[in-house]
Here is the input.
Amino acid sequence: MAITEPVQNDEILLELKDIEMTFGKVTALAGVNLKIRRGEIHSVIGPNGAGKTVMMNCINGLYRPQKGSIYFKGQKINHLNPHRRARLGISRTFQKVEVFGGMSVLDNIRLGRHIHMRSGIFSGAWYLGKSAREEIEHRQFIEEEIIDLLEIEQIRHKPVGMLPYGLQKRVELGRALALEPELLILDEPLAGLNLEEVEDMARFILDINEEERWKVTCLLVEHDMGVVMDLSHRVFVLNFGNMIMDGTPEEVQNNPEVIKAYLGEEDLYATRR
Here is the structure.
């Protein structure tokens, strides 16, 4: 289906307009609107069941909303399936780690390069000419850029299933980066990590967003309010399918409705220390 209805604002990388998503009688998203600006880290917060993961699934094509429009780089993408959205530059990690345990770290990350492969079936099957050159180029990119960034040089040949959970999270992040996305969706990247691992992951996210080599726009879903407030340029607040707040971390922290519903006095104090 043709991509239509361009949005005439180059600063906006992703835009959701009046998105509605229901499951039977349950409304997961009720007329959600948001704009993701290029080069920033945007976070979505809210209690369990607020619709955060449903919204991420609508953006990358796992779900198709019943109403509303989704625009990426000014193009309407409602009817594009996930692999076509990936080709446009949307990549993601998942709430639960989705890796191939029997494959090496390097091979898991290499799967994220598939959309960049250009060699044909014949040369790929016999590992000839263009296919061989592509393989070398992609492996060089992975080892020199991604593996170095995520500090996993020593484990690149190990089966992912034998690694601790925190390292598996890094591998999944590496696979998402292998696509070289313009928008990286991170669905609870800190869940299940210890304090040291949380600090490392937060540092990686900042590097991905700020380093000249990457400059990736990030959409982060996370329950760790301290990290959200430290990393984010803007924060969206979902309340059981309804967007009740869109503002800077400071504005969100000082909004009485948000404090009461999501942060609480103790958690809010912790984010300000």
Observations:
- Strands lie at 12-23, 26-37, 41-45, 67-72, 75-76, 90-93, 183-187, 217-221, 234-239, 242-247.
- DSSP finds ten helices and ten strands in the chain.
